[in-house]
Amino acid sequence: MTKSQERSFQVLLFASLRDQAGWTKQRVMLPDQDLVTAEDVWSQLQLGPRPASVQIAINRELVSPQTLVHAGDEVAFLPPFTGG
Amino acid sequence: MTKSQERSFQVLLFASLRDQAGWTKQRVMLPDQDLVTAEDVWSQLQLGPRPASVQIAINRELVSPQTLVHAGDEVAFLPPFTGG
Amino acid sequence: MGVMQEKITIQLHNTIFDPWLQLAAWSSQTAAAATFIGRVREVAQDGRPLEALELTHYPGMCEEIIRQDAQRLLMDHDASSVLVLHRVGRMLPSEVIVLVAVEADLRGPAQRCCTALLEAIKHQAPFWKREWRDGQGTWVSGNTPL
Amino acid sequence: MGVMQEKITIQLHNTIFDPWLQLAAWSSQTAAAATFIGRVREVAQDGRPLEALELTHYPGMCEEIIRQDAQRLLMDHDASSVLVLHRVGRMLPSEVIVLVAVEADLRGPAQRCCTALLEAIKHQAPFWKREWRDGQGTWVSGNTPL
After folding, report:
1. Which of A32, C13, D69, D82 could be disulfide-bonded to D120 (CB atoms 3.0-4.6 Å)?
2. How far is CA A51 from the centre of its chain?
3. What are the pLDDT digits (tens) for D108-117?
4. Residue from C36, C56, C58 to probe the interface with B (highest B Cβ count within 10 Å)
5. Size of interface C-D (CB pairs under 8 A)
6. Does domain D5-139 sit in CATH 3.30.9.10?
């Protein structure tokens, strides 16, 4: 594992958020000292305030916005589901 | 139509009632003057008191025991249903 | 497709039928379809192995009661079409006794109408089951619990 | 028959499938089976004709969420087996999007588990629909009413 992979995590967007942001997947560096929450990650994406309906998953499990993000995590922002 | 058909009706039994009575279908004469109810028909079959669970149909529609029977009717006694 | 689907189809079969072939032939392009299929159990109501199940019905009245129930429930639930296939006569364990299918524009109406129609058939249609074992027939006294 | 049926089968398909053939291959001799089949509507949510429906999902998470829901609901309702087939990708009107089937020893558990699992898939599984018309895609904002 390279140094950058050790200190980075993946961000995924889906559906309308992809259109809004113009991308699907992004690798983001963790800051050296600070703790980073899922909500912090959203803020850095500069997509405006997070709609209450947008849920967050870390490593494919739904989490609260205050959950800490660790190196190697997969952080996903999920618009309301419309399957079935 | 013969005279006997004019003044008679049909009685049908189903399921356990057939076993109990030993027959399936019977043609019964209406008395000349008296009014006859579905309950009267049951009494004449001599199968004991009618269990509350045995329903009565005249001409294939459920009726109350007090419903009058007319010449040409089809009177059926129906144990509890167990289909489906 | 091509042929207009009848709103209500009710058939009593005295021989075995394949439920999935019947459904494939009946189904339309409607958005929601709920179906229920009931089969003969391997055991009798007393828990002992069952050899065969015999189903007696009141011809004419039986189909008419189911048709009335289907008509009423289709309207009550705003569903668009109903299929009911019911076996009569002698059946072996695992054979299909009853098939109920309902199509509707929405899932709730399809599911609720299907459930309600199955209960109506069980409680209002003049069918009687007899369980057979060792050449002995026993009339079934009530429906299985819901 | 012959082959032991898996308790829980979940498959995402990116091409069209025949729901009745899938059910025929999956179904066992269990006494009760409830199924639901949902198809793409002819019209979009705004009532205008729909050209195509596109379904995006979160691979891995989607299957896992459905599996967890199926496992929990199977236990809650005392059902014996579950089949979920769900389309992803581009679909045309009348194509099957979702198939949910549940087998149980009794009709109530089969029906209730099937209904509950469909709702769980609609509300908890990461799928997103986009409606296409005149080369324009519009993300669907919510589920159809129950």
Report:
1. D69
2. 14
3. 999 999 999 9
4. C58
5. 96
6. no
Which amino acid does the sequence have at B47?
A: L
Q: What is the ipTM of this complex?
A: 0.91
- What are the residue boundaries of the structural domains of chain B, listed by start? 3-78
Q: Which residues contact D69 (CB under 8 A, 6 or more apart)?
A: D117, D120, D121, D124, D125
Cβ atoms C38, C115 nearer than 8 A:
no
What CA–CA distance (Å, rounded) separates D31 from B10?
38
Do the chains contact at C35 and D34, CB–CB below 8 Å?
Answer: yes
Which DSSP string do the residues of B1-53 spell out, in sequence order?
--HHHHTEEEEEE-THHHHHHS-SEEEEEPPSSS--BHHHHHHHHT--SPPTT
Q: In this structure, which topology does domain B3-78 adopt according to CATH?
A: Ubiquitin-like (UB roll) (3.10.20)
Q: Which residues contact D107 (CB under 8 A, 6 or more apart)?
A: C36, C38, C118, C144, C146, D32, D34
pLDDT in tens, B8-39: 999 999 999 999 999 999 999 998 878 999 99
Residues of D in contact with C39 (CB under 8 A): 29-33
Say if the Cβ atoms of C127 and B57 lie within 8 Å.
no
CB atoms within 10 A of CB C2: 3
* Distance from C-alpha of D7 to C-alpha of D74, rounded to nearest angstrom: 9
Residue with tokens 């008679």: B8
pTM here? 0.93
HSE, side-chain direction, 13 A CA sphere, residue B1: 9
